[in-house]
Amino acid sequence: xxxxxVCTAALIIVLSVFNGLSNLISSLYSSFDPQIKVEYVKxxxxxxxxxxxxxxxxxxxxxxxxxxxxxxxxxxxxKSEMVATIKxxxxxxxxxxxxxKHNIVSGELKLKExxxxxxxxxxxxxxxxxxxxxxxxxxxxxxxxxxxxxGSLDVSKLYSKKNILPGSVFAIEKSYxxxxxxxxxxxxxxxLNYDKRRTSLEIKVKNGYEVDNVRDELRNILGNDFRxxxxxxxxxxxxxxxxxxxxxxxxxxxxxxxxxxxxxxxSLTMLAIDKKQDISILYSLxxxxxxxxxxxxxxxxxxxxxxxxxxxxxxxxxxWLQQNFGLVSMGMExxxxxxxxxxxxxxxxxxxxxxxxxxxxxxxxxxxxxxTRYNSAQYL
Length: 380
Fold this sequence. Notes:
Blueprint: H1 2-32, E1 36-40, E2 46-47, H2 50-57, E3 62-77, E4 80-89, E5 104-107, E6 112-113, E7 116-122, H3 123-129, E8 140-145, E9 159-170, H4 174-177, E10 180-184, H5 185-192, E11 197-198, E12 200-205, H6 211-222, E13 226-230, H7 231-234, H8 236-274, H9 276-284, H10 289-325, H11 346-371
Helix pairs in contact: 1-8, 1-10, 1-11, 8-10, 8-11, 10-11
């Protein structure tokens, strides 16, 4: 029972950790990426006509529709320089609520103040450039390489340049913090000379509407020329990987649970040998093979269920303690969370219990059949 309980608790803990990691990644992406993203399938950018914009905005369930221009740029700050991804967003971007006070580690969250434009810079870029949002004397220089004909001797025509003040610094996740800069849409539109072209549209759904329903409606309206994805579909590969890891983790620990349950096989086998006289007496009193099998199968089920109940309670208690008190830390100062994330799900408990019952039945069946051999008077 102890072995079964320990294996069961370990399986619950591992599955809960996978759930916690999945929820953590989902929360990180939902902070940075939109609920629905619309991109052009046949190219990098598309012309956002007034009629197209109106048609999308009029779709039922659309709350906030943000225009986006995103591309790589070369940036300089004082004597430091690097390549980054600039993301120009329309004025309603902050209304989507994807940045909050917990994400802003320095400065004031803003894209515009009067006629002055400000950049929201990733913390990794701030470290790389030794940038200070409180310093208004040194603007961030943004350069964009133009697509011009070869043979031009005028260096000034090779790139466009604009300056912008750093207004705040965000921290979400390392891959974002080290690459992204958010700026007003007009700034990027002038820098890249995009006019009415956009690279994507980002949508926040109204309260009370299902994201997937709004996504499906947009797919019907826009057709095959546009890719419309919810948050999980934008990172489908990562979510598939997490599900596969959880599946293989469950299979691996199920095998460990099966190995631990082999003790039930040996226990029932020794019990059948030890109780052969009692089995013969039962036969002499009129017992059938089915009754003897049920007795030994019931014995195996009692052992496994007792261990399973204790293991489920033990695993659930450890996960609860981790959630509330952080028994095990991540062990890294730069980690997003201080402690390992865990998230208990009822389905994990059910699948573990069902798996244990099936394993126990398979293991206990052989000793139960063996016990029916002692039906002769020679064992009395």
